[in-house]
Amino acid sequence: xxxAMDMAISAITIIILFITMVSLGCTMExxxxxxxxxxxxxxxxxxxxQFGIMPLTAFSLAKVFQLAPIEAVTVLICGCCPGGNxxxxxxxxxQGDMNLSIVMTTCSTVLALAMMPTLLYLYCxxxxxxNAVPYTGILIALAMTLVPCGVGIAINHWIPGWSKMxxxxxxxxxxxxxxxxxxxxxITIGGSVWVVLSPQLMAVACLMPLTGFLLGFVMSSLCKLxxxxxxxxxxxxxxxxxxxxxxxxxxxFLPEVIGPLYLFPLLYIIFQAGEALLLVLLYRCYQMLRxxxxxxxxxxxxxxxxxxxxxxx
Length: 313
What we know:
It comes from Clupea harengus (Atlantic herring). Belongs to the bile acid:sodium symporter (BASS) (TC 2.A.28) family. It is a multi-pass membrane protein. It is found in: Cell membrane. The structure is a single chain. Helix content is 75%, strand content 3%. The protein has a single domain (3-289), classed as Na+/H+ antiporter like fold (Up-down Bundle), CATH 1.20.1530. Helix 4 runs antiparallel to helix 6 and helix 9 (199-222) crosses helix 13. Strands 1-2 form a two-stranded antiparallel ribbon. It is globular. It has helices spanning 3-26, 30-38, 41-64, 69-80, 86-93, 98-124, 135-158, 161-189, 199-222, 227-238, 242-252, 255-258, 264-289, and strands at residues 297-301, 304-308. The protein has 13 helices and 2 strands, in the order H-H-H-H-H-H-H-H-H-H-H-H-H-E-E. By secondary structure, it is mostly helical. The model is unreliable at 305-313 (pLDDT under 50).
């Protein structure tokens, strides 16, 4: 690695995380957060799904595909990350509960400060990797996310007119910065990028979000939540905060230790976005093909108005 290029990539990665968390904070409203906290059933189920399903999925896939130690750490960190703001876009496309989506992202981001190191410690016991994880660096990175997120919440609360503008500008900067990181990483690591594109890591990147989507939906269905909440919890479970994951891998680990594996979250997000878009497409097709709901017809029976179903034949 070129020290100057490596430092530039780390700096851009931190900037991306900062912009992402400010934009995420701009989507959060204190009143809506308070309302869901007072009625916490949906949020509780969603948080259990986020920190229960994804870390276990990451652990299981790392075992099944017999990943190398540093590859297993990379996958576990990705699986233990909280939800990201991309899930809010997919929840909107799936006509989910946007309030629940935003509150779930908020809660998982805050809880990650305690949950992520704890889960990493527990699951790393299965690989004898507890000494390979820089817990101090991860805690610092997680704590740093709360500051820009708080800034975004404050902006949305005190100057709500700025929120949409910040989100749009932030998205543009994110796209440009992501391209810059891709180009700089390609120059820096050269042919070793094929380490990230190994069949095992590609299979893990493909199966992790898909498993999260499916098990999130199944879990919320078993808890008898409505359709909106089921779709919301499904996408929130499968969508990870990739910017946070990239920052942890790039900043908390030494370059000679992590190598090109800090690019794994970029591979993950390609499959995550592709599978989520496929779910949106299938849901839209289902909406178009399903028969229209029957409207009840009201009749007066014994001086009372009652809804009855009129025979179609």
